[in-house]
Write a structure and sequence with these properties.
This protein has about 80 residues and is of the alpha+beta class. It contains 3 helices and 2 strands.
């Protein structure tokens, strides 16, 4: 579970363990990261994707949000030292 990024792609040092992952999600840094890493976090169940109509032509925008799994990890990380 702790190894989300495999084969050296993305930022394996940043998300190498649960503490780093919780800090990454808590700070909201997932909004400004690579598409590959976002997809890995969505596949692992830490992020959810919601499509939002912008009122313009074209595809709807995708908004990332924390899921219950990621909020639980953040809450547990408050007790870690």
């Amino acid at each position: 579970m702790t190894k989300i990024v495999k084969n050296g792609r993305g930022r394996p040092a940043l998300l190498g363990n649960k503490k780093k992952l919780a800090a990454f999600l808590k700070n909201g840094e997932f909004q400004d990261t690579t598409f590959f890493l976002k997809q890995k976090l969505v596949a692992a169940g830490f992020l959810g994707v919601t499509k939002v109509q912008t009122g313009k032509r074209g595809r709807p925008a995708e908004v990332l949000a924390l899921t219950g799994k990621s909020r639980g990890l953040i809450a547990l990380s408050a007790n870690w030292k």
